[in-house]
Amino acid sequence: MERISTVRQIAQTKGAEAVLLTFLPDVRWVCGFTGSNGLLIVLPDGAHFITDGRYTTQAQSEVEHATIHIASGSLFEYAAENGLLAGRTSVLYQADKLTVSEFDLLQRRFSAVTWIGADDLLVHVVASKSPEEIERMRRAQHLTERVFEEILDVIRPGLTEKEIAAEIVYRHLKGGAERMSFEPIVASGPNGALPHGRPSSRKIQPGDMIVLDFGCHLEGYASDMTRTVAVGEPGEEARAVYEVVLQAQQAALESARAGMPSADLDRTARRVIEDAGYGSYFTHGLGHGLGLQVHEWPRVSHTADYVLPLYAAVTIEPGVYLPGKFGVRIEDVVVLHEEHAVNLTSARKDLIVL
Amino acid sequence: MERISTVRQIAQTKGAEAVLLTFLPDVRWVCGFTGSNGLLIVLPDGAHFITDGRYTTQAQSEVEHATIHIASGSLFEYAAENGLLAGRTSVLYQADKLTVSEFDLLQRRFSAVTWIGADDLLVHVVASKSPEEIERMRRAQHLTERVFEEILDVIRPGLTEKEIAAEIVYRHLKGGAERMSFEPIVASGPNGALPHGRPSSRKIQPGDMIVLDFGCHLEGYASDMTRTVAVGEPGEEARAVYEVVLQAQQAALESARAGMPSADLDRTARRVIEDAGYGSYFTHGLGHGLGLQVHEWPRVSHTADYVLPLYAAVTIEPGVYLPGKFGVRIEDVVVLHEEHAVNLTSARKDLIVL
Asked: How confident is the model at residue A197 (pLDDT cuts 50, 70, 90)?
């Protein structure tokens, strides 16, 4: 079904005549626009897309299923002045993607409308990826893997985390990435015990474990991968922890499938880590959805209370972080099918000792 | 005066007992926190900073003037459960930096509070930079200039815009930048006529004009610079337009000072371009403020209705864009003093023909 029809159906179930989409990744998902300013009004019998003059040409080549409007000032003001919601009495809007000030303006300018706010309006339908989306994600993930292989030749004692991060970014952009999906994490030695540390000026030392976590956007879609490598012999404890994290990830990869409670998938990996005595050092959830955004619904977490949807793309990324010592995290992206998960990631996972 | 006292003074003038800051650059400006999740409650006799467990260590080393709290879930819920606004009846909040859903939660959880919404709450005080901030901006701008000089040796026919952009990013990160302040613009030949085009796979050709617009964050603060260079002889029209844009910028740099209406500064440059017959091809405002963000209040624009504040850092970036042919833009960052502007940018501005 066309995505815009899906939006109309959601409007119906919420008792709304129209939908105002203000969250850009959702606007893109529905009508194809990739710019940085735009909103979409979905009506039962049509749709209006509004952007500004910078995007006149781009909107014409990208936007489908909607009449294109170019506003010179506020997009909301344009919609009001041009009566784009004329005659509509109930409109669904994204309450978690609109500021209080913007909503005040809407209420003033569309005084005849009853506004129906919703959080997470499209997350369930956006989560299920089409075959074309999965192919794009596979290409993005493949570029990230290629960069990982190149980076293995770059890493050596004496380089700083920041320098390695710069190499990672450079190679993604040279490889065609539109942008990084987040600032690369290069966390060496004790820095690896901070799950989201930023690259520092710390120099790589012999014996370091290094957590490398990075991804890009290619054709709109995000990649995300973590590998932990050693620079010289890291010692017994590091090897043991690596093996535990790898087994935890393997257990999750083997049991992952659509229809499974998110919490159960998290626990599959968590149990392996707990049984090895490291339970209190796995301090985050197992993974997250991704697609047009690098972090999307659903989370894969023992605190989540929902079931994982069919064709969702999610990360599986268990980790163990020993304060003052090192961290280990291993992350793949998988797509959930009815009976199994398809791994989009093929980079090797045995402990690499450089 | 301490910044937190400034916030208290603003609260007083708005008749509020407390202020809730939710916009992270403002939170950073007041208390120093540089992480990605946090909020600040400023009371007449103290302040509360709330973040999550990822930032325990970082908050302790960064945050000044506030009691630090670590929340395990929603920061707003934490504030409610721990009575951080107990006894306060009127609280100022950032209506343009809070979603409708977040505000609904606040209203439910703090039923005794009257919420006073404000847009642009701190923009006027954030705009005036301290000497230390200006030094940081100078260092950021200097790094960007150094990268520009290096890039001149890289640019040659056959390279794509994307490849040049990758080199620009790489050199900034290697030079110590925390991140780019925006995706670099590398717009060659006819692409230069799109003021905000993204780097494409177009290969540089002999005779091209190339618009190079980029900047980074260093020590938190943003740089931003544009230069337009030619690859081989670009021809008479390009040389003539370059001269007009340069003269327009020069006129603005010479007249810029604090206390001047923003519109007047814009018109100083615009008049030069209009007099040369290119007025309709200068399709954007003259500049924008910058600091912790690369785009801040004030805009420098003929449509602005305010006066430029003392010690504001703003860009001066006139441009002429000839559709189908080329574009020229030249951009410096200046700090506005009482009688003149101090240019933080020293990269050469004669037309460079590579």
From this structure: confident
Residues of the domain holding B268: 127-343
Average pLDDT over residues B43-50: 97
- Single-letter code of the amino acid located at B306: Y
Q: Outline where DSSP puts E strands in B65-208.
A: 67-71, 90-94, 114-118, 179-180, 185-188
Answer yes or no: is pLDDT of A1 > 80: no
Report the residue of A55, A76, A100 to disrupt the B interface, i.e. the one with the largest count of B CBs within 10 Å.
Answer: A100
Q: Please say which residue of B92, B121, B150 terminates a domain.
A: B121
CA-based nearest residue in chain A for residue B120: A101
Q: Do A96 and B100 count as a contact with CB atoms less than 8 A apart?
A: yes
A99·B98 Cβ contact <8 A: yes
- Residue A54 has its nearest CB partner, among B97, B166, B195, at B195
ipTM of the complex: 0.92
In chain B, which residues have their Cβ closer than 8 Å to the Cβ of A174? 162-163, 166
Distance from the B339 Cα atom to the nearest Cα atom in chain A, whole angstroms: 33
- B303 sits in the region (left: phi over 0; alpha: psi -120 to 50; else beta) called alpha
Q: Are residues B114 and B141 in the same domain?
A: no
Answer yes or no: do A84 and A157 share one domain: no
The whole-angstrom separation of Cα B333 and Cα B313 is 7
Say how far apart CA B112 and CA B123 lie, in whole Å: 29
Chain A contact for B95, CB < 8 A? yes
Within a domain: A353: no
Global pTM reads 0.94
Among B99, B170, B198, the residue with its CB nearest the CB of A98 is B99
Alpha carbon distance A92, A41 (integer Å): 10
pLDDT digits (tens, 9 = 90+) for A271-310: 999 999 999 999 999 999 999 999 999 999 999 999 999 9
**What would the DSSP string read from start to end of A155-207?**
--TT-BHHHHHHHHHHHHHHTT-SEESSPPEEEEGGGGGSTTPPP-SPBP-TT
The answer to whether B96 faces chain A, any CB pair under 8 Å, is yes
Are A103 and A181 part of one and the same domain?
A: no
Q: For strands B39-43 and B18-21, give the pairing.
A: antiparallel
Residues A139 and A107 in one domain: no
What's the domain count of chain B? Answer: 2
Domain contains B36 = yes
Q: Is the peptide bond before B298 cis (omega within 30 degrees of 0)?
A: yes
Contacts of A45 (CB under 8 A, 6+ apart): none
Question: How far, in Å, CA of B218 to CA of B143, rounded?
Answer: 9
The answer to the question of residue B160 being in a domain is yes
Nearest to B173 among A103, A166, A176 (CB): A166
A203–B contact, CB cutoff 8 A:
no
- For residue A21, give the nearest of A13, A11, A264, B226 by alpha carbon: A11
- Of the candidates B180, B208, B214, the residue with the CA atom closest to the CA atom of residue B193: B208
Specify whether A169 is located in the same domain as A316.
yes
Rounded to the nearest angstrom, the minimum Cα separation between A168 and chain B is: 9
Let me know if residue B21 belongs to a domain.
yes
Q: What are phi and psi of B320, to 5 degrees?
A: -130, 130
Residues A257, A149 within the same domain: yes
Please check whether residues B187 and B304 belong to one and the same domain: yes
**What is the tens place of the pLDDT at every residue in A3-59?**
999 999 999 999 999 999 999 999 999 999 999 999 999 999 999 999 998 898 889
Same domain, yes or no: A115 and A137: no
The CATH code of the domain that includes A14 is 3.40.350.10
Give the pLDDT score at A93: 98
Test A101 with B103 for CB contact under 8 angstroms. Answer: no
Last residue of a domain, one of B73, B106, B121: B121
